[in-house]
Amino acid sequence: MPAVLLAVVSACAVSAQAGAAGQQADAPVLSERQLARQLADEREWSRRFLQASRAYANGQWEEAERLAKRAVAFDRDQPDGLTLLAAVYAAQGRDELAGQTYQAALALSPRRGDLLNNYGGWLCSHGQAAEALVLFDRAALDAHAAPADLHVNAGICAQRSGQWERALEELRKALVFYPEHPGALESMASLQLQRGNPMAARAFYQRRLGAAPATASVLQLAIKVEEQLGDKAAAEHYKSRLDQAQGAGQDADARVDQQ
């Protein structure tokens, strides 16, 4: 199975956005009082957004939803608040709302690479690979997009849709930008195994284990690779590590101790 698509929730610096807005040639000149009010509003929105982001990161879905809605209500023109709310809906399994909210965020800033990447990742996770790949291509035109994460998502999506050559190309690009990217390495290992190259898959999963703490998903992949290579001892080693993780009650995406 391909690796899980990366969830990217952008926490943009409000001050940077304000600075960019102030550089527009047709931007109105603000009085000192107006500028102070604008900065106060930006700080308040940022505070609400960060509170919601923390709740999301901690898996507190109901609290994250409540706080994200507060951020959206404070400034409905901020796509980041909507993106975070969409991610919360997705985590709750409320797929229709998630898709609608990702679309609403993208409509506010249709050229932003992170928003295109987020919505593309969601589309691919819901069986719409062709539409997702179009969005990833658009995201690549944004010089401010995170290129490694973008190419990993595009690679995973291409693999899911059976476009192995494109998947290989995208993952190679990701590794050029970030040679030890855990998602790229695990996805490349999965792709090589699917293509019938278990030795190459072994090299990539071993790099993945060296790049970041192990997860159950990469241990499961390692077991499959070693079984195909006929290395029973190595397969048993990874099975033991996986059993320890599952015995501790960790889910498929949990980090497990390196051994």
From TrEMBL:
In terms of InterPro entries, this protein maps to: OGT, TPR-like_helical_dom_sf, TPR_rpt
Task: Please state the span of the N-terminal signal peptide per the UniProt entry.
Answer: 1-20
- Give the keywords, sorted: Signal, TPR repeat
Which SUPFAM superfamilies would you find in this protein's record? TPR-like (SSF48452)
State a single Gene Ontology molecular function: protein O-acetylglucosaminyltransferase activity
Span list, region Disordered: 240-259
Q: What is this protein called?
A: Uncharacterized protein
